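hi support,

uploading two proteins for the ticket. first:
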Amino acid sequence: MDKKTKKHKRLTIAELRQFKGFDSISDEEAENTIGTLEKLSVLFYSLYKKQQVIKENNSNNKKKEKKDEEQRGAA
């Protein structure tokens, strides 16, 4: 399966209720909580991916600068 089309398993109400403090919430509260957790997860993942791109760009820039310096020194 392609990574971009992979479906993620959504937390169920029963699974949420296994966590301390969530054992007696209503189904509606549980759905709202799950939705909020899902949005938060997407936000954190997006931030993580952006950080990865920034690190990769910085690394590539440093490599390019080093190569440029080496070429200037050889000239």
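and the second one:
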Amino acid sequence: MFVLKAKHFIAISKSTKKGMQRLLKIHSNKITAIYPGVDFKKFYPLKKEKEQNFCN
């Protein structure tokens, strides 16, 4: 099973980390919680006129 071979795990939240510990019996020092992020320089809301043109 992959859990036995992995040296470390990444979870997307503390809740996921706790679930992995409980369900997969992984020690907490083998799991790091890293939250997903967004680069707001690359991803930002479109202006209304561009929004309408995008869908057409």
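thanks. also noticed: The longest helix spans residues 14-24.
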